[in-house]
Design brief:
This protein is α/β, with parallel strands linked by helices. The protein has helices spanning 14-23, 57-61, 115-127, 155-164, 177-189, 208-215, 232-244, 274-280, 289-293, 305-315, 342-375, and strands spanning 2-5, 30-36, 43-49, 66-70, 91-93, 96-98, 104-109, 132-135, 169-173, 195-200, 222-225, 250-254, 285-287, 320-324. Bound molecules: phosphoenolpyruvate (PEP) and manganese (II) ion (MN).
């Protein structure tokens, strides 16, 4: 059961205190107070975990400050929309908003290789007005003989350079719990010049201990990438692991699924699931056109498949894009063949803006028609 408080009610206010004291009559229930931000309004919720069927909803509904009481289904208790009753909620990190209405672009290196390349990418992002980047320091590779990433030793210069060029958040994959500590230490050592969004890669999509580790810390938000061989339901349950540990600052990323049916793309592009994830959950949704398309091929009009893939996500309302670029893709130590050059990145950003405008027009069109439907 979730008790949603009215917008003006604060988590430490007397109304919440009254409800918590009423709930103390049900000692078998665990009570959790959750505060989130949204574009429309802040949300304070009281989550009840345990045998809530014994708890009567009516007296709670009539208590001061309560807007709504929702009995949640067992699926996606924390992240779910529960038949659209619950508002989508978002979060702000480093002054940047993540919710189901906004759109952020995270661009950068698949794997950090040299300091010079990191600097060139950040400089380019600054010129393009982008404050969000991706940088891989820990790389999970199919072959043990491939480059595994520079790990903790590159973090200080990556963070310092981010600060120098106004990059506020870097999406960075972690493969084990200790990587979170290394990131925390490097941020401390460099004076927190930037922020980090912890990325759970597709290969760790059901690494439940790692999911619990990113879920039980509150410092960093989490970018969860769908498992390449998992159903949507399995991946959403994995996100629920993160949320159930206490961290609801999660972005769900579609990155394609492994299938010969996607050929000649690296994965079968699954961006048709953008509206599905937005409907089932309250999470912002990211698309990764780089790892899903995975090739630098162009359609007859000259547009890269990576651009087309991103467009499919954005036209359907995606809230974040994760895209790889490299100043000199030929020399990249990981995923060079799918990296955009910095010139291509500039074009990409302009292309995304066109598609986003079309998405906004689609929303306005729907609003116009839905008003007509209400009048009937
Ligand atoms: C990545 O984004 O760096 C990556 C390895 O992607 P994925 O986990 O989706 O393969
Ligand atoms: Mn990559």
């Amino acid at each position: 059961m979730i008790i949603i408080m009215r917008p003006e009610i604060r988590a430490d206010g007397p109304e919440v205190e009254d409800i918590v004291s009423f709930l103390s009559h049900f000692p078998e229930i665990k009570v959790k107070i959750v505060e989130s931000e949204g574009e429309i309004r802040p949300v304070t919720e009281i989550h009840l975990i345990g045998p809530t069927h014994n708890i009567p909803a009516e007296p709670i509904k009539s208590m001061d400050g309560v807007e709504m009481v929702v009995r949640v289904s067992s699926k996606y208790r924390q992240i779910g929309r529960h038949d659209i009753h619950l508002h989508p909620v978002g979060f702000t990190y480093q002054d940047i908003l993540f919710d189901q209405d906004s759109l952020q672009i995270f661009a950068g290196l698949c794997a950090v290789d040299t300091r010079e390349h990191v600097e060139q990418v950040f400089q380019c992002l600054q010129e393009l007005g982008i404050k969000t980047a991706r940088m891989g320091a820990y790389k999970p590779r199919t072959s043990p003989y491939d480059f595994q990433g520079h790990g903790a030793k590159c973090l200080p210069y990556v963070f310092e350079l981010a600060g120098k060029y106004g990059v506020k958040i870097i999406a960075m994959e972690v493969l084990k719990e200790n990587h979170i500590d290394e990131i925390r230490q490097a941020l401390e050592q460099t004076g927190h010049p930037t922020g980090v969004m912890l990325q759970i890669g597709t290969r760790n999509a059901q690494n439940f201990e790692l999911l619990k580790a990113v879920g039980s810390q509150h410092e960093f938000p989490v970018l969860y990438k769908r498992g390449m061989g998992l159903t949507l339901e399995e991946s959403l349950n994995a996100c629920e692991y993160i949320a159930s540990e206490g961290n609801r600052h999660i972005v769900f990323c579609l990155r394609g699924v492994k299938s010969q049916l996607g050929l000649p793309h690296r994965n079968l592009i699954d961006f048709g699931h953008v509206p599905v994830v937005k409907r089932l959950t309250r999470l912002p949704v990211c698309v990764d056109p780089t790892h899903s398309a995975g090739v630098k091929d162009r359609s007859p009009e000259g547009i890269l498949d990576i651009f087309h893939a991103a467009a499919q996500g954005v036209i359907a309302g995606a809230n974040m894009i994760l895209v790889e670029c490299h100043p000199d893709p030929k020399t990249a130590l990981c995923d060079g063949p799918q990296a955009l050059t910095l010139d291509e990145l500039k074009e990409f950003i302009e292309d995304v803006a066109i598609v986003r405008e079309a998405y906004e027009k689609r929303r306005a069109l729907r609003q116009k028609y839905s008003k007509g439907e209400e009048d009937l």
